[in-house]
Protein 1
Amino acid sequence: MLCLSWWVAQQWQPKGTADFGNASLGIVHSDWDAIFREMRRILCPPRESEGCRLCAVGWVLIGAKCYWISDGMNPWNKSREDCRDRGSALLVPWDQDELEFLNESLQKPTRHFWIGLSVPVAGMGWTWVNGSDLDQDRFRLDFGNQPGTCGTLKGNAISPQTCDRRLQWICHKESVRI
């Protein structure tokens, strides 16, 4: 995003005055509206006068969220760390409808993917990586609370797997509105 902002800013500079230093860009606060209007003009579909949403290269935009699907395979903990390193989290779907929408959009119904659901310790139930408990009203799941078990997405269903199994994973984060 910063590179894109820099590029747009360069388009507004008088020829021959572009420089890479922040002070020499000469952009004042009042110029940012014009810069973002130009970014929207270049990047957003014509009818999106209020802007559009963008994801980083390699991420898939679905609705207002960005999704990244791994090529490699890792146990659940390493998958969670990888998502954190990307400034995101393992997938925490809102409800069954989002799972079905993701399944249709990503078209990977035969593979298991780690999502952000686990049974962290004995005596605890299923917990999302954001700290919230699994809401049985949103997801109709019927499997035990065995520690060391983590959630996977296969098709539009969540199923349990041992957390040390090596699988692909899905990260998600909010898109950027410009």
Protein 2
Amino acid sequence: MSDPKSNAAANAAALIAAKQAEIRAKLAKFQEQQKGGTFSTTTTTRPTPTPTSSSTRPNYSRIGNNQRINTHNGGSNATDSDLIQQKIAEAKARLAKNITNISSTSTTTTPPSVPSQPRATAKGIYVPDAKGRVSTPQVGLDATGSIDLQAMLSSIPKREVATAKANQRQKKDTTPASGIIMKGRYDKTKNPYLDESIETKSLIPMKRKPRQLKFVQPGKFIEKANKERKHAQLEKLKQEIAENVKKAGMETELDISDKALKKEPGPLAEWWDVPFLPNKDYADMDITPVKPEELDQLVTLYVHHPIPIKPPSEQNNVPVVRSLMLTKKERKKLRRQRRHETQKEKQDKIRLGLLPPDPPKVKISNLMQVLGQEAIQDPTKIEARVRKEMAQRQKQHELTNEQRKLTPEERRQKTKSKLEEDKKQSNEVAVFKVKNCAHPKHRYKIEVNAQQLALTGIVIVHPKCHLVIVEGGPKSIKAFKKLMLRRIDWNDMPTPKNENGTSKTTDMMDIDRFNVGGEENKCYIVWEGQVKSKAFRKFTWRAFDSEKMAREELSKWNAENYWDAATAITEEALAARQPEI
């Protein structure tokens, strides 16, 4: 073991030599700067630092290029050398003092203590040995031979600062986790793509765990193959069904999923047989005797009809959407737009050369603007030609209109088709009550209009009540209502005449027979509405003297309720509820 005194002396000698070398280098640098520049004449007196104060030690390690050194006697070299000698003497005195302290502490016996951490002071860094004794300060030098202050600062231990209680409780565990691998385990030269920051246990190649032997049970793969065959057969069956359905035009209506193919088992007994079975099961049908008296109560004359179901091809048919009903102004606007588009298309074809251009439409009013010089040369000839063209255009226009007109047969067919379409909408019924409609003029109007409007029904002529029943479409009934309630003047009953101009006395006797007391003749609507089906096949006219015969005639067509409603209500009540036509 080396002597502490010899170690201290060696360290002191090394420190002195380093200081001397540093001071000489700075002095030489300063002298070179002094030769190159001129100092100011102004001098400043600087007191010499006392050697007793260790905390006010001057720092000679930094001397700038433009820094001026103030001296006592005009900056002479003698003063600088004296200052250097003074610094060397101070360092020797401190070294001797430290050696004396070390020798005094080594003679006294102290119990062994734990080595403390290195202590840094202004004089240097004191490093304790294994026995806790503090040696001389160890000073590090950099590459230039000066003191390495950065190394001295990094070796100074930092003071622990107290934190809050919450931070003290949440101290992080500095011990590495079991799953984390220490960095540097792998060589990056071998794997340059290895990221050590995410190096975990998962990167270690794991060994395969030993497994026990497992023997395949006999028939396992046979069962698996059978399942695959069944699945293939099912897919093939579904494909065949889809192709057949597609041929029938019902590809979007049928469900060919697995649920549709797998049918549920049927019930133990059908619902229509349940009342006849004692235990609601076909198994007991032969065992239990059947009682005839019970069957008579269950069997009736009514037939149960199942609910009709639409075929799959008609279930989701899109209903026919009727065209929007437009006003007269809107129809004119659409017609004008269509004509404009047609004319524009024709003009485009003429520009492209697909059609020849139309001849100019010359009139007397624009004769001079269109023809110009040609009209001035021979105006009589030009006027005759223009009038001829005008007449030809008028004739062509009338001919086109005549060709566009429908023939009488086509008009009748068009009217008939409209009436047939009107009938398909709904079956409307209207019942009228007239005081007297036996006049030939009124009878002719009623029969002809009913025939023209394709109406069915009957007219009952009776002294108590003249009843008119008509059936047809909504438009036909609406037109017949206007005829009965507004167009016919029921009080206009002129005397009927023969072909030779003489009056028919027999017809007048019939009219007077139904005319009660010369009262005002009126027509009222008793009822109007929709029915499920028509009761009459054609429009007829019947006259009866008794009410019973009239009711029996209507009962043949299941329309006696109309007679009851017309005879039961009074004229005042009918007049109060008449609609406005």
Protein 3
Amino acid sequence: MKADLILALAGNANVGKSSIFNQLTGLGQIIGNWPGKTVEKAEGMLFHDNKHIKIIDLPGIYSLSTYSQEEIISREYIALKHPDVVVNVVDATALERNLFFTLQLLEMGSPLVIALNLVDITKKKGITIDEKKLSKILNTPVIPTVATKGLGVHEIVDAAIQLASKPPAEDTPVIRYGPEVETRIEKLQRILTKDATGYPPRWTAIKLLEGDSEIIKQVNEKKPDAIVAARILASEISEIHKESCPTVIASERYAAAARIVKEVRTFKETEKPSLGERIDALSMHGLLGYVLMFTIMLSILLFMSFFGAWFSETIENLFESVNPGFTSFWGDLFWNGGVVGLYATLAVAFGFILPFYLILGFLEDSGYLPKVAYLMDRPCHTMGLHGKACIPLLLAFGCNVPACVGCRIMETKRDRFIAIFLSTLVPCSARTVVILGLVGAYVGVHWALLLYVFDFLLIFLIGRLLNRFLPGTSIGIIMEMPPYRLPSAKVVLKQAWNRFKPFLLTALPLIVLGSVIIEAMRLTNVLILVSDALSPVTVLWLGLPAFTGFLFIFGILRKEAALVLLMTAAGTTDISSVMSPVQMIVFALVIMIYVPCVATIAALIREIGWKRAGLITFIEIGLAILIGGLAFRILSFFI
């Protein structure tokens, strides 16, 4: 569908950009990668005021420099793809820092609408921002919004439509630098032409003075004399100020932002800290913060364990109440293969996976996850990473695939490889299904918790080893701590659905098909032949029933299928009748450690190449077999 209007959402990270995107596009979103990049691209369509409007959610960035892929993508899209309007989402609680980016967008000559977000929080803090005065100073529409509640969101679109219908405004600089800088910008601007880079000449001149490597490369191909002139002019500015030219320009830009904020913002003293500020102080506390974090994580684990077990039992009883009791081959294949596979998969999906995604969405939208990253910074450094790595590692509890993709936020290839390796060892929701649905339900929740503790120790040990033997060192990082906010039920539900939908569309049919195939193999005794071939590992070393061998192979497709297909292969939903407690623990342990699912392997290949992906896969297979066999022999003495 051809769009009548294209809006690009741009802004710093954690300013509510994704919330506005979700409010505008609903479920009609397309998630992919930017061409030739490993940065996620999100776009969606909106029908508003009889217009089909395409919404592009650009990566969250803090400047239009070239220090990251995200910054290059955003500025190339804005300047070269020419969206009709750029919607700059601004955090009203941190106006000065956000305006630093806004001024750069205006310097680029972008048709701009400013979404002044989080105005509800500024009000609670006693901060008032005169959006009309801000609009007059910047010569661009300013719309106050509360994205999580949808307030002001459609007014943004109205303002964008109105702005797009007007002729381009005169190219009048919003920010004027000092005379010693301005005269040199004008000198350089006269040398440049717009076709030198495709960017506006004034903006290009500023970037050349800042020493932007990407712009220098582009200009050098068409106007090499401009590069020589820029170096001379930049050195003159540095000589005058006794500081580097980029520092001078950035300082003057920050000073301009500060002057604007001083004109439009007023404070009213609040008598006591808000509830969010008190919670923030608690969650960041050196001791109580960790207590709160572990309490939250333990509560999530216990809730999922008990709710999942209750839901599974309920849906099983519902289906079994209408069991026709087939005795023929085709009847058994239909019921024990198809129907049992279906209700077991539904029990897994709605009992474990969907609740986890809802909880994860709640924590994300509340602003708590960055606090966890802050608390985990020191432990992560012992594994050669910084606290930022904690975010994809936390995402891995939902699914290893987005966790691997999320490791793109790591600044170096070394950090990225370590984070990806460790994220594949985190028990995802599919492995959690096996741990809680098997060990938690039949052996005891305390044994399920011990499996998690063991896995975390294994992750810590492997992280230490990788940090020691891989060349290079971990770098420090500065992270923004967003304020706490009440999560939007609409946003949380949409995020959970977008993560859950692929399971329903791809995994459910695959698991049901696998259940039918395994039941057919059981009825025709083919399963015995396959299991016998794998018995030297499964039976002699791991101490498991012979029929589990095939499940490890099929589990590569979907780990959550292992529990469903275990019931199918055993011919019963009461696993305790065919496996001992030790065998259940060992089975869950091997599932937890060995090769990730095929979707994760594909993500590994895409992110780090097939050689490193293969290395991770084979190491984890070896670890799972080794640890599983040792665990069987040790646990047999105690259980």
Protein 4
Amino acid sequence: MSDSTSILDLPTDPLGGGSISNNISLSASEMNDQSQSQSAFSLDQTTINQIVNGLQQATLSGATQLPSRDIPMTTTGHSNDPQIQPNYVPPPPLHNNDYIKDYEQTNDMINNYNSNLKRQNNIDDAYNEIQTPLLLAVLYFLFQLPFFRKFLFTYLPVLFSNDGNLNINGFLFTSILFGVLFYVLNKLSNQFNAF
């Protein structure tokens, strides 16, 4: 118990009625540096007179005026504008749009939906037509690889004759395996197509 803090030693919440015992204190003190700033910026009378004379000469020559190139000199563009008048009604547009006729009709939406559906069905039909021959070609390729023959020869040597070629049992086994794999892969692809 010596490694823990007593509940009475913990600070309390002042919102709940307790008080915090000077955990945080803020003190503000202002230093008077006025005497230092006045001595650092004190100018003699001749320098001040030179600055004032320079400003007066610049004012007389017009150097202190703002350029007027961006200030409009005439206000006729604003006063002749008909849109400024409080009772202004804009003229009708040159080409009258019939908003009701411009909206897409229900028949148009149905035709667009049917054409999109037909296009999607055509793509699905093409995929389904090419799926079976492609799957058969891939399986045939895999069965003809030397790796597959070596695997069969290693684990099922009874399927091979003495010269290393498949015997009738080997042909029968590979044909059945080919058919079963095709059936399983075809069913899996049909299941995935259903989603």
